[in-house]
Amino acid sequence: MTATPAADHLQAHWTRDGAVAILTLDNPPVNVVTYHLTTALGVALEEIAADDSIRVLIVTGAGKRAFCAGSDISEFPDMMKPGQVIDKKLARQNRIFTRLASFPKPTVAAVTGLAYGGGVEIACCCDLIVADEGAQFCLPELKLGVFPSSGGTWRTTRRIGMGRAKEMMFLAEPVDAAKALDWGLVNRVASAGAALSTAMELARKLVQRPLGAFARCKDLIGASYDAPDGLLLARSLRHSDAAFSSVEAAEGVRAFFAKETPDFTKFPVPHCGSDTGFE
After folding, report:
1. Is residue 227 in a domain?
2. Which of 15, 16, 65, 111 has the highest CB neighbour count under 10 A?
3. Long-range CB contact pairs, 252-258, < 8 A, 24+
């Protein structure tokens, strides 16, 4: 496992384990979201996206206390006049969180300890979420007179439904890992201290998947709440035509008839565009 340059000086940095990148939110003691953490997160995502040897991304938090405990409230007083919070925080933060949500490679959040506010928002940007059995999820923003402003309102709702999302936001009460699993907020609950290792088990399976087909599937899933059926069908047909004529499909069909396991890892990671998801 190797670290990226100057990792010790960044509030978000990454290492690699084979074809898996492990991106760590690292702002002790509870990894709160600051200007510097958000900026470092954006840089790390660009580096990982550009590295074709990386096929899966895990996002985790440093230490045992928190995945990410939300925004640094000490930054708030400088943002409380009209227009300031957008310029100083939310525009950049939403752009970078959206980059994670639309990442062209499979993403897994490994949550240990607290995932509060922005921590929930970052986790919900990932394709899959693994939680330590002691993890707690909370959207406490209403207690401060604000609300989840970096995708938490809609990404949480898409995962758990309107009624449960309203309960999380309106009551601002912590949800434990067992309830988060029952609600569909998380995909797996790991034993104490095993969130990252469980996420790595999932990542090693995802490494073997055809990432072109993955990205096409993810693009359609992401649009499924917003686009009408007719548009989704047209988009699906475009993706299907490209998928059936791809090198991944050729390998999958070849391996099926040869009674072999397909090797999709020999094909490059696709690069996503802004319309159908592909350039």
Report:
1. yes
2. 111
3. 252/210
